């Protein structure tokens, strides 16, 4: 049984004179109506039906119901949703909506089983993701930290409440932000591991792998980056060329530290993806010849035309300039070359369309299986 703190204060807004249930949150007393708390088949509706026997009735001023794990401001936001007037509730669907308030409402509604209120607040958050200035790309360091903390809280909330629509929206948003700032990619990678978000894992790990130094610099050697982008990592750096200032500058970079398991997944993913590309570059995606191809064309010549195109384009500058492990990027570069191919003299038109579909299917399968490369 938890004891009441000696110094308690009455909430200025929700210690109601005609309230019938006193609750203690931290050091703050709230006095609200039992009928309000009993709505929606909530946790409180069951609590109020428990026989008290000879003990003092919980919820009176002498024996308040003590709630733990919440702050007074969070609980105050929750009570606002229970007591708000219709025009006040409508404000949450406008750009003026307080996102932090909605997060508090959703979390506490979930905790105390106010299912309808939980769904309403999560739907409002869903609407806010498109209009709120609090979610989206930022430029200042402090704003970036606040943005990542807010997105983290939202994704965890959507996962806890099993709100698939909001979770899908947030994952899509985070995938867009990853391409703008590497910090979001690190965040996405960590959340994917923590919450087992398959839809986020592959893209997040690939982004970090493409833009980060995975193996730290050693004296006399260059950084080992796995993605093939950014700094020039292809040439060795002499030991004397690394100055103390450069080393200190690298140490000061605001880059999150990878855990051993994350580093292992990145290295394993690099090996698997490069192995996949080694196979793909010598084995073009298969396709079915059109029925008219055998009647009017030489199928062998049609196939040979496709194979020659594939061998040429997989060695093209637009492909090899990408990282060895960026298999998706390389395949998409080949797709662009295919669109510029024009009319292939020795390939039936319908077969070209079939080959296009085969290439698109190859990309789709790789996108779906990308998380498996980083298991």
From TrEMBL:
InterPro entries: BTB/POZ_dom, SKP1/BTB/POZ_sf. Residues 19-83 form the BTB domain. It comes from the Eukaryota. This is BTB domain-containing protein. It comes from Piloderma croceum (strain F 1598).
